[in-house]
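Render this sequence as a predicted structure.
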Amino acid sequence: METIKDITTPIGRMRICASLAGLRSVALLRMNQESTNSVPNSLSILEEAETQLLGYFSGKAKQFDLPLDWSGMPEFRRIALQKAFHIPWGEVITYAELARLAGSPQGARAAGGALAHNPFLIVVPCHRVVASDGSLHGFSAEGGIKTKQQLLEFEGHGVLNGKVIFTK
């Protein structure tokens, strides 16, 4: 059984999906995509996910504490996303750093591929992963790089000419 709930956030309408095992996905809706107004058999995880996401956007929540349903995911993708989940609010790492954390030091492209299939937008903060030169490559959520830049700027990063301004 999977249930869904749509919420309105500062970056657009989001759809949260959950199963009995946990959160299945968080995604931005396309501009022309219809919202779902009622959710039969709603799961409490949907309410908690909404609370935590809205807390993130209000600046009060810096970390998520939600059960995530990783089932059916290829092993490297799951590992890379689990490592990305732990990138602290307001910090960025490179694709190469994520690959190393995921056990594949030469796998920067594979890490990028894993992030491109991140079903947990914002909860697993793939927006915090950038190219080694700070470039905002590949962001598959609605709005693409513009959305990634919005999220990074929200978390306090400067972005100039499509690159994060590293302060460290």
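Summary. The first strand starts at residue 2 and ends at 9. Residues 44-57 form the longest helix (14 residues).
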